[in-house]
Design goal:
3 strands; 151 residues; elongated; single chain; 8 helices; 62% helix; three-stranded antiparallel β-sheet; mainly alpha
């Protein structure tokens, strides 16, 4: 389907306006698909993002500020999200040895096992994106990066 059919709008003020609406609509659509995958695991996309970032650290903890910098949703309350993940046993806070005022967050073994359960369902989510060829996906990545870097 086209964006015109999806939102029942036939005219846009320009191709740029149509593109902006299409990007926002597509991001929301993909976000909804993400939510459907995570709901059975009682996990929010923001919590998943933190676990994904920490898993990529391969055991090295990160400060809360580093987590904020790397989050997809920059408006997330990372401290509150870490609290919830800590309550579930998926992460632990550690005082930074070189600066006792700073707190680092690390993923636990339980957190690694838990996020591992999401690998297959999340890879199935890619099937929605695989309507694009690898070349088209690479081109779209370049174009989206170019758009964001123009600001």
């Amino acid at each position: 389907m086209s964006i015109e059919n999806d939102i029942k709008q036939t005219k846009f003020s320009s191709e740029y306006h149509k593109l902006a609406v299409n990007i926002l609509y597509s991001a929301s659509w993909l976000s909804d698909k993400n939510l459907q995958v995570m709901k059975p695991f009682k996990l929010t996309p923001q919590q998943f993002n933190i676990l994904r970032i920490l898993r990529g650290q391969k055991g090295s903890p990160l400060s809360v500020n580093c987590l904020i910098e790397r989050m997809i949703d920059k408006s997330s309350n990372v401290s509150r999200l870490v609290d919830k993940l800590e309550d579930k046993g998926y992460v632990e806070r550690k005082t930074c040895p070189s600066d006792r005022r700073q707190v680092h967050v690390a993923i636990t073994e339980s957190g690694l096992e838990f996020i591992g359960q999401l690998d297959e369902p999340m890879s199935k989510l890619d099937s929605h994106i695989k309507a694009l060829s690898l070349e088209e996906a690479a081109t779209l990545n370049v174009l989206l990066d170019k758009m964001r870097n123009s600001i």
